[in-house]
Amino acid sequence: MLGDLISWFGDGANWRGSGGIPAQLLAHVEFTLISLLIAAAIAIPLGLFVGHSGRGGVLLVGASNAIRSLPTLGLVTFLFLLISGAEAAAIIGLVVLAIPPILAGTYAGVSEADRVVVDAAVGMGMTGRQRLWQVEVPVALPLIMGGIRNAVLQLVATVAVAAYVGLDGLGRFLLDGLKILDYSAVAGGALLTALLAVLLDLVFALLSRIVVPQGLRVAARGAAAGGTHP
Amino acid sequence: MWQELLDFLGSPYNRDQVLVALGDHIYLALVPLVCGIVLAICIGWAAQRWRPVRAVALVLANLLFTIPSLALFLLVPSIIGTKILDSANVIVALTVYTTALLVRPVVDALDAVPSHVIAAATAMGYRPIRRFVAVELPLAVPVLAAGVRVGSVSNISLVSVGALIGTGGLGVLFTDGFQREYYAPIIVGIVLTVVLAFVVDLLLVALRRALTPWQRASGQPAAAEPADSRGGAI
């Protein structure tokens, strides 16, 4: 098995052309990031609004829990038949699945911002807008980034599944390999997909260290352990 | 679309197929859930006693949870030597996810058991194993239950991906509908998956209430459920 795997990775033909490893890896990352951007552009403002105003929180949590239980394969195949274009269908499906984690993180971060801190901001005479941008958003950043990391994992996994309806990406090696019984391609593709997920998770973990304000990190160290996203 | 749906469900053959798929789905989702809970509790127990186990378990749990489902389904056979299209692969992979999801809540919940409670149990003559089962574990149930609910939704949704590697379950309705360009089975499959996740969730809430009678007796609110950190389906 290991020998097959090594010879698959060693075969130059697997690295060239539009179906090669670099091209599919790039496609996988591209679909992941595009869907992430669209999902974040919808989920973060919505989460901020609901968390800040406190209106519609129950509805939002209920809706995002319902979306969470949607089977990814069902959603992607349904959208494919509805739209009959692999890329558009897959990206809509990916966006739908990436919204709940980001929305939940943003909403939880803003609505659970320490009341004492928010009250202090009110006491200092901050307007609603100032309070949102200068207090609630920075305090919510760790949870927002946690939501984004969950969304990235969800997206990398779903891009692979969407290869079933014809989307490019590392999922091609898995499903095409299964079809022609080329198990070294299957194992190689699975390994690459797993590595990509681990790598992207590390990149976003690093990113969240960079964007989370210094003061919060000190506070978190004080509060010790049990962060939401390990 | 409605007519198509009614036609699909009108045929006894289709109804049988759907019921078989539903039965498979429940089996493929719940067996790993139970195995995962047992494994996570064992690992949590070990992590409580030995520091290195704790560090390794938490890092490994994070790493395993990161691996995409389809990739894990296909990596399992080359690791444990099963056939590539065996449904055991799905069960093993989902057990890995459930365990990975639950290890941290179990460890956190066991950490949170007040030391005076443990001291009291020891003073009453409880041996370590019995103390763990009769005192520490029940006190960890509220936190554990929150994790189990996330795990059950995630498992129920992920079983469908197994259809791509030829296992049963409601996912078969998706591949079937896709190949025949037929909406009805896909819609039935999606609705049943969501309803199944909802029903199992209700049962788990009822189970948690039954297992934690003291929370009702003392009128305490249910323990704050930890923010759903890694939740959802991968």
From TrEMBL, chain A:
One record GO biological process: glycine betaine transport
Topological category with respect to the lipid bilayer: Multi-pass membrane protein
Domain of life: Bacteria
UniProt KW Kinase keyword: no
Transmembrane segments: 31-51, 58-83, 89-110, 139-165, 185-207
Subcellular location: Cell membrane; Membrane
Chief subcellular location: membrane
Keyword entries, A-Z: Membrane, Transmembrane, Transmembrane helix, Transport
Residue ranges occupied by any ABC transmembrane type-1 domain in the UniProt entry: 25-204
InterPro entries xrefs: ABC_transp_perm/SBD (IPR051204), MetI-like (IPR000515), MetI-like_sf (IPR035906)
ATP-binding listed as a keyword: no
Cited Gene3D superfamilies: MetI-like
GO cellular component terms attached to this protein's record: plasma membrane
The family this protein is said to belong to: Belongs to the binding-protein-dependent transport system permease family.
Protein name stated in the entry: Osmoprotectant transport system permease protein
TrEMBL record, chain B:
SUPFAM superfamilies xrefs: MetI-like
Compartments in which it is found: Cell membrane; Membrane
PROSITE patterns: ABC_TM1
Pfam families found in the cross-reference section: BPD_transp_1 (PF00528)
Residues that span the membrane, as ranges: 26-47, 59-81, 87-107, 156-175, 182-207
Keyword Cytoplasm appears in the UniProt entry: no
Protein topology in the membrane: Multi-pass membrane protein
Biological processes per GO annotation: glycine betaine transport; transmembrane transport
ABC transmembrane type-1 domain residues: 22-204
Gene3D superfamilies, A to Z: MetI-like
GO-annotated cellular components: plasma membrane
Keywords linked to the UniProt accession: Membrane, Transmembrane, Transmembrane helix, Transport
Domain of life the protein comes from: Bacteria
Family: Belongs to the binding-protein-dependent transport system permease family.
The name this protein goes by in its record: Osmoprotectant transport system permease protein
Originating organism: Tamaricihabitans halophyticus
